[in-house]
Here is the input.
Amino acid sequence: MLAGEAHVFENHDRVASVIFFVVTTFLYFHAGSFPEEAAFYPRMVIGLMVILSVLMFVKSWLKSGRSRTFEPFFIHHKRFFLSALLALGYIAGVQYLGYYSASLIFIPTAAWALGYRNRFVMAATTVCYLLFIFVVFDQLFDRPLTQEFFLRH
Amino acid sequence: MIEPFYNSLWVILEWQNILAMVVGVIGGIIFGAIPGLTATMGIALLIPLTFGMSPLMALGMMAGIHNGGSYGGAIPAVLLRIPGTPGAIATTFDGYPMAQQGLAERALKIACVSSAVGGMVSAVSLMTLSPPLADFALAFGPPEIFWISLFGLSSIAVLLGSDPIKGLMASCVGLLLGMVGLDHVTGYERFTFDTLELSGGLQLIVIMVGVYALPPAFQMAERAVMTGVKSKDLEFEGRSDMANWPWAQIFPAWVRANVIGIIIGILPGVGGVVGAFVAYNETKRSSKDPESFGKGNPVGVAVAECANNADNAAAMIPALTLGVPGSGLAALILAGLLIHGLEPGPRLFKEAPDVVYGYMWAMLFTSASLFVFGGIIATKLFANILRLAQVQLMPLIIALTVVGIYSFENSIFNVYLMLGFGLFGYSLERLKFPIAPLILGLILGPKVEFNLRVALRLSQDDWSILWTRPISIVLIILTALVLLYPVISALLRRNKDKPEEEFAVGEE
Here is the structure.
């Protein structure tokens, strides 16, 4: 059982080394299309990365027989993807709805989606946060934010 | 030498700068006190707030976060045996047993005073060692700058994490990201893949906030801790009388912690965690009562916290003078300087003395301010931050990163890019790649390339210019030693183990 678990653990490094190898090999050849002077330094660094990815693969291969504690890649994959999607949706919301409107929706929604249920604390946190942003970014430093959809003419 | 210190003292004492330092210290203690958040993340998150500030005000705030964060980690370390920051791990050894014996207040007070002492002595070392080192560094030409940058990069890559291959890979990723955009010599676009927004290059702040601030937010979401710490776990009674502290043991422990912390802080790649451990072990080894360590000895708390903070300003010595930071956090502060249009290195001492010397004062004052803000009433208040449910913090962190990055260049493309780097940083963190070499590679990459190309132009493509000058030779040897360190240490370990194995076989 332990050996099987160790195999899974080591696979993370092996998968990463293969990804690094493929990407860096592609970039190495891509850099070949640059003028010689502009290509020299990138190819030097990327060449080193190709070697390092091979070393990483060999190391993970050599280590694969040893027993290790299993450590999954994600702590909780469903909540990870949920939070990543929420963040992506939030950025799209900031782009199309405006920063304040999107944040007003995102902060309580994200906490709710992750299982938090104290409505009063969620509302208070959201209001305090937006006030803080308004004072610091708008009033104090005069940094422009995305235009609010509901205030557009 | 005295004049720039004198002039900058009046600049740093302007009310705006004092306010920035106070906000920084309070923010730093809060970030340090919440497990999962660190001073590094605090600086990454709050750098966008400093865009509208003067460089010195921004650096004052960063100095406050740096010193406040280093102490803040001690609060949960003592009360809950959870180090708020990695540097506070050694504080748990005696801090938590003291809290269990009803001496939490004494442990926190010792931690606070020791942190302040460590930070102040470290700031004095920064003030005294940096100017002569900067004068010396002015003699560096392109080959020396090329090698010192490579030395700093190799040190952080090899010594910081547990796997040198991953460290080197992370620094190469940083170097690669630093190449994206127009090549300044040929004008050719590199790695932009015809994306207009990338032709100007990747912004340091975008990558920095992505890889430092977003991964902890995602991990908070994954853990989804719905409740904070219960208030009864944060209660501590009794009064700590400083007169009853074991001064005869604490004072020599502070001296030892400061010497070790400062030396380790200056070395690139070896941070406060190592300093605190080494100083703790040395104090325990030389103690007349080593058995009491780990069971609630106040000297253990004093030495761990003092050494942890002694590396703060010391790590900035190579950062300010050579442009090569001694720790991940120093790399972030360096990035902060770059964002405000200041190029770290010896010339900065001539071009912006008020900023450099003012920053040194800020490190000293923010350390000293821990006596006030780390006092027992404040500590009780900060401890209550632990009552917040972490699940509430995740959307706030994401919202704060979005507003910060958007307001940097009013670019939503940068915000998407930051999210991409956040996911990339999360993957690196889960695969146990160190993040600091990536940031350092990003900072030093253009410098390495520029100086290599200038050196080769000066010598008309004669590569020997890189290894014929005396300082270059020293730097090459140091870089080679750092790169070979894992191999050498593995061989030494094997030789050390061998006689024992042979003995064991012989016994059989």
